[in-house]
Every structure is written in C-alpha cells, then in structure tokens.
Amino acid sequence: MQEEHRYKAVIFDLDGTLVDSLPGLQQAINCVLSDNGFPTLGLDEVKARVGHGVTELVRRALPVDHRSEETIAACTKAMREAYPHYWKDGTVPYDGVEELLAALQKRGVPRALVTNKMQDVTDELVHSLFGSYGIDPVIGSDSGYPLKPDPGGAEAAACSLGVHPQRCIFLGDAETDMETAKNAGMLAAGALWGFRDRRVLLESGADRLLTHPLELLDLLQEVNTAAQE
C-alpha cells in the first residue's frame, strides 16, 4: 500500500460523538435561564441548540426578544461558571466508544479531539473518562483556534499528530463536524448515535455514516484497502 494514500489518524468530536453530555448541559443552561427569569428548556430543546460553542448555546437558549449582546454576554459568563459544576451529571461514553479507543490505541492509530466545548471542562472530561487512551492533542473552544466549522483546530491537530489532513478521518455527529472535515480536506464520518439525524449529516457533507462507534474500525480497513487497489 502506498503510504501517501492511507488514512493514518482519527480526529474526534466530543459531545454527541464520544459522550452523551445532554443531561449536564441541560442542568447548567436551565440554572442560568431560571436565575435570570427565563423559561427553561427540555432535553430535546437543548439537543437542538448545542454544537456551536457556549455563546451560541446561550444565544439560542434565550427567548428571541431577550437576545441583546449585553444579556448574551452576562448569561454566557454565568454558563461558563455553572457548567463545570454540572458536566458530570449524566455524562457517559456511548456504548462501544471505549472499545474503539482501546482498539485504535492497540493498533497505533494516532488520536486527537477537536470540540467547541469549553477547554477546561473538555480537559477534565477527557482526563476523567478517557485518560488511559492517549488522546492528544485535545483542542477545545478556548485553545486559540476559531470554533468549528473553521478548520484551524482540526488542521492543528493533524499537524501535532504528524499526519497530513487529507490522511485523517474526522468523526463527529453534527453539521459543524462534517463542515469542519470538508474544510480541512479530511474524510467526514457521521455518527448516527449522536445529536443530529441522517439528513443533517448528509446535507452537511458526510462521506460515510456510522451506526456504532466500532464501525470506524471497519471504515479504516475499507478505505485503506481501497487505496491499495
């Protein structure tokens, strides 16, 4: 197999891809909304609003007639203060994720993570749930790179891994992830177990759709076998 045609690394999204984090997000944003006299959100309403960073989550969570820059800024600050206390509530790896990470580690496949989640919570979460799986680098929203779908964070992750972006698979569950992958020239793998449905992933550029995390191993074998032919 020609080395330049192999997919050599995997870059992961976090929320909706490696972990179901909706309960903690719901508790934190509802705490902020309630404290400011605004209606709280159901789980599906939170699910529809996540993926674009904390400021955008707050903006979308606020009632339309209360989305002034001042209110958004104040509630974003409150969310940044609240979420570190709530993220552990109900946040769990999806079935098969730990097995996938262990298999990639055993095979020597480099692994990185790029998320629009707050950096401090991301670091704590990854260390707590996935600390033994060698995910590095871990790039969150406060890393100095623009938020996804800007490709800057993904490209920096590939550079850190020593792998050309075109030789990376980006696995995520949302439109921002598929767009990030396309913008960086990576193969866009959509996680159907996450926060968005098949239609959203396909319309935002997914090259492949996976129904279970361990299917990523089959995808790696498939695309690398095809490159050999």
Structural commentary:
The protein is α/β, with parallel strands linked by helices. The chain has two domains: 156 residues, 3-Layer(aba) Sandwich (Rossmann fold), CATH 3.40.50.1000; 65 residues, DNA polymerase, domain 1 (Orthogonal Bundle). Helix 1 crosses helix 4 and helix 3 crosses helix 4.
Protein traits:
single chain; 229 residues; alpha/beta; Rossmann fold; DNA polymerase, domain 1; 2 domains; 6-stranded parallel β-sheet; two-stranded antiparallel ribbon; elongated
Which regions have little confidence, pLDDT < 50, spanning 5+ residues? none
User: Can you tell me the number of structural domains?
Assistant: 2
Helices and strands, in order, run as: EEHHHHEHEHEHEHEHEH
Tell me how many strands there are.
Answer: 8
Topology:
Blueprint (H helix, E strand, L loop, with lengths): L8 E4 L6 E2 L1 H14 L7 H7 L4 H8 L7 H18 L5 E2 L3 H11 L3 E4 L4 H12 L7 E2 L12 H10 L6 E5 L2 H10 L2 E5 L6 H6 L4 E3 L4 H14 L1
Parallel strand pairs: 1-4, 1-6, 4-5, 6-7, 7-8
Antiparallel strand pairs: 2-3
Helix pairs in contact: 1-4, 3-4
